User: Fold this.
Amino acid sequence: MKLTALLGGLTIFPAPQSVPRFPALGPTTSRSVRTNNMLINPPGHPPVPHLDEVTTSSFNISNVQAEVLIVDPTGFKKLMNMVIPTISTVDIMLDMSTQPSASLNMAFSQTGLHKLGIQDNLNDTVFSGGQFADAPNLAESTNTWVSQFKGTSIHGVYITASDSSNSLMQQNSALQTVLGTTIQVVYSIQGQARPGDQAGHEHFGFLDGISQPTIEGFGTPLPGQVTVPAGKLLLNREQDQMTRPSWTIDSSFVAFRQLKQLVPEFNTFANDHPASIPGMSQAQAAELTQARMMGRWKSGAPVDLAPLFDDPVLGADPTRNNNFNYTHPGFNSSSDQIHCPFSAHIRKNVPRTDLDPIDLAHHILRSGIPYGPEVTEVEQQSGQTMMERGLLFLAVQSNIASGFQFLQKAWMNNPEFVKHKSVLPGLDPVMGQNNGSARFTTGLDPMNPEGNTTLPMQFVVSRGGEYFFMPSLSALRHIISS
Ligand code: HEM
Ligand SMILES: *[C@@H]1O[C@H](CO)[C@@H](O)[C@H](O)[C@H]1NC(C)=O
Ligand SMILES: *[C@@H]1O[C@H](CO)[C@@H](O)[C@H](O)[C@H]1NC(C)=O
Ligand SMILES: *[C@@H]1O[C@H](CO)[C@@H](O)[C@H](O)[C@H]1NC(C)=O
Ligand SMILES: *[C@@H]1O[C@H](CO)[C@@H](O)[C@H](O)[C@H]1NC(C)=O
Ligand SMILES: *[C@@H]1O[C@H](CO)[C@@H](O)[C@H](O)[C@H]1NC(C)=O
Ligand SMILES: *[C@@H]1O[C@H](CO)[C@@H](O)[C@H](O)[C@H]1NC(C)=O
Assistant:
């Protein structure tokens, strides 16, 4: 398995000694000798350097995502020749002394590939149909979608990231200088790691980026980490089930979603539905409810191992915080929700021993970053979201119908999943969707695990997105030379 090739597909950024350089990048920014690491490594994340780290929400950054139209495909391809030699591998990203001042990723929609003259069928019908057409399968209305995502007009996306807003601005203007009027930005949104001790946490407050699949042949997995065949994440690798054009090797499909989070509303719900553990304060009981919805405490500690109270030491320990499987001696895992509800977000997405044999087909690599401001005092007190915030969600996989779409449709949205339990689990209370109709879930209260709760609203509202093809370096060369 090739580290270089794999991450070539995921992380594209100017190399320190790149020739030619982006015109707008001066020597100090394009060749940084860093004194600080661009990646954050909050307690609980696998240690840096770690393969998965580069694709998770681990940048100490601002990040800009720009959805673009390719106005002049011929000019675009020609100018991309200047960008391609600057593309480098993840080795550089993992070594602080060679990290660039800003990273760059690029991916194309089906419309964009057509525009660039690629007529080959990449054999992913969900990708080629686009996300707008897929909304009914995800059980969501597109009424809440950002208008630019409605339809199939977006051609591509570039993602720049840096820990310095100056470098980020420079990187963006450099890119725009190079590509000039061959592209037109139609939508852009800035992601932002949360401040202080919330770095690495999403807006509900939970540490994110803990559990990722690792790829067969890549070193030793951490305890509890699942190992999947390379072809589950990369095209044309072992156990990619589909036949693809050979030039797509080591590329991936990416599901991008802008997911708005209603944080004060999420908190109000928990306050109104505290777990009924004798002797627990209202605040502790409300926190337990939220932890059971997620399957983890805010620190990252899994409720399966810490069922009643948060355990920040466990949450911060990457050798223990992912090492659980929902089975416990003396408990029947068909009915045990004392530890973790069947419907919890992480259990719905990765059911571990709930499926026998353990599932290897439906894994994604997640790479999200929060966007929007911190919750204000006024919002917290009124219980109402007034300013948009949420997660810029990115899922990497080789097959969208088995990856992102499957998890949303067949597991999170499906009240019957996981089957053969003592109670119908209901929806994932965090991310399950039901076309805007009432959602129910079970297992929120460990004292009444069969209890059925109607959720008053969706705490996460989709603002839409698009499906993209993220080429490996060789695939990118193929595209621009076609
Ligand atoms: C705003 C929306 C979302 C929030 C706030 C959220 C939050 C979280 C958190 C806090 C974790 C636990 C940390 C970790 O294990 O890395 C997690 C895990 C996970 N989430 Fe989400 N998530 C969201 C949307 C999604 C979506 C749309 C999907 C897939 C379609 C997804 C799939 C997963 C998976 C696969 C895991 C790992 C579970 C495991 O391995 O145990 N999430 N999420
Ligand atoms: C992020 O970078 C800033 C500026 O270099 C630094 O002050 C801060 O400590 C970093 N945060 C983390 C979590 O590493
Ligand atoms: C949501 O609505 C679409 C279109 O009407 C339908 O095809 C789909 O089955 C619905 N999904 C759910 C979970 O009700
Ligand atoms: C897609 O892959 C499947 C499975 O290998 C194959 O049967 C089918 O012919 C392929 N379709 C295209 C358009 O390549
Ligand atoms: C689940 O985890 C426990 C504790 O680590 C272990 O003893 C058991 O073998 C695991 N079960 C499965 C099916 O992997
Ligand atoms: C576990 O519970 C299920 C359903 O609640 C039941 O059918 C099964 O017999 C139980 N298994 C054991 C070993 O008690
Ligand atoms: C929970 O309530 C919903 C809506 O009334 C219902 O469809 C579902 O079957 C109930 N589930 C359980 C486990 O009682």
